[in-house]
Amino acid sequence: MKKKNVLFTVGFALVAIAYFAYIEVYKITIGGWMGAILLFAGYYNLHKQMLADKKGLIKFVSWICLFVLLIGNAKLFEPPTIQIKAVENANPKVTDVVSVEQGDLTGVYNADESVEVYAGIPYAKPPVGDLRWREPQPAEAWDGVKACDTFAPMSMQSPNSPIYEVGSKIIGYHDYKFTFEDNYKEAASEDSLYLNVWAPADVKPGDDLPVVVYYHGGSLTTGQPYYEAYNGETFAKNGVIFITVGYRLGVFGYLATDELAAESKNHTTGNYGLLDQIEALRWVNENVAQFGGDTDNITIAGESAGASSVNALCVSPLAKGMFKNVIAESSGITPKVPYHTFRTYDEAIETGNEVMEEMGCENMEEMRNLSAEELLKTKTSNGSMTVDGYAITEQPYLTYEKGENNEQALLNGYNADEAYVFMMFSNHSKADTYVEDLKEIAGDYNEELAKMYPATDDDIAKANIYELYGVAWFDYSHHTWSDYLAAQDKDVYLYYFNKENGGIGPWHSGEMAYAYGNLDMDSGNYDEVDKQVSDTMVAYWTNFAKTGNPNASNLPKWERYNENPNKILEFNDKISMIDNKYTKTFAVFDKYMDGLVK
What we know:
Distance between the termini: 80 Å
Helix content: 40-55%
Strand order of the largest sheet: 4-5-10-12-11-13-14-17-18-19-20
Structural class: alpha/beta
CATH class of the largest domain: Alpha Beta
Strand content: 15-25%
Number of strands: 20
CATH superfamily of the largest domain: Alpha/Beta hydrolase fold, catalytic domain
Radius of gyration: 26 Å
Number of helices: 21
Largest sheet: 11 strands, mixed
């Protein structure tokens, strides 16, 4: 074979591989794959028949033509934007009619007809137009019977890069699958104030089943209420009404300005997403009995920013009496100066002013006239709640010190490698900067912390940093939260998730699929031991939702934090109480926090 033919074949193969990788990553539909095959086959034959001996300019032009056609092919077959169906089974059976305060609705049954799913129930008016950055308003009534068989769009958020999505599945979750079944984009909209209900089949008003209202995580800037890790089918099969909630995110949910505060009858700004969560909880209290739920036994739950939100509901006077108990995973805002998802009012206003300047707007009328897509371009961070004097009236820890918090019992905990995914691309991995790097989480107590966790080389420094940032950002909030509740003689159960698997293991969010009974056993990431751990966690979580106590005679004893705060329940291959290895570390953070509020 001539050298130039070898070069062409290699170049052609590389271009083809790159293009097919592109259309797979960007979820181009099957028509695009067929078009690509035809284009490459046609060009290859054209080259063999007519172009092989032509001069360079003709070949160059032919390549340009191929690239233009390939770009056009990808554009023509871009993935559609869709809303996700409530159940995966085709032509699902429709439920009986349920009557809520806004009107009549129906849901659908899952595949084995053991669970009823009601998706996309509006709990507030769409926060669009003049209602952007205002307190949520009650949902309007509708005529006829509303078919609630499809999840509403996720709240407006900047989409992750498709390359990031694929990379996380390959590197983190180890479960990337080549399939044409996911060639779509999930819809996002400002019109996203909807909730979803999973209930046991044939449940009826008066059954008085326990209720869990779950708030998703995502740093208050991303996420959706229908993610498979916290699908509610398993809880419903275990006799619990499970509800997930969409709420405003990012600049739409947490923007704060003086003008917005002035125009509000409640003088509130900066907590619109939190107010959405409270409005959803109000709706649940008024309507969940129609789904067979007990309004006197509502547990609120969340993970990451969802747990921070749940913690905020515990200190909000607006949520008092709306729930009983709390499940919180991997976050909270009880430290005297929370590490994340919380900011001072002055900081919130300053960021709001930066957004207005960035958008070239002088008032809120101009801001409300901007498109949602334009607002998403902001470079500021708007993923934090604040003390607005209405939804949150003071620093959360002060409410706990006064004993005015709302929850009666708490199941909470954290994972072994909470910060790993957040620290992967940080520069905090050198022994010679190690002590200085600890100032970010411990201030002047950095040297004391460094003596407890010495780092003699870069590898140890990196490992320690990963661990200690996780302890500060996530674990410490559960230490303070548990201490406050125990001091009030309210039942507290604390866990430590340390279960390795073929996926993300005990990284941040790694426990969710276990706790809510949604392990993908077909992925190859989990084995029978994982299933047993998941079954046990589901039993604890659902027992807690039913009684405020996770224990049962057939489960390992989960001791109350109240009796021995130095013990913690470990979820690993073996489930048992162990010594909490961070007790002394928490004491350092206690001193650091005390110094911040002197």
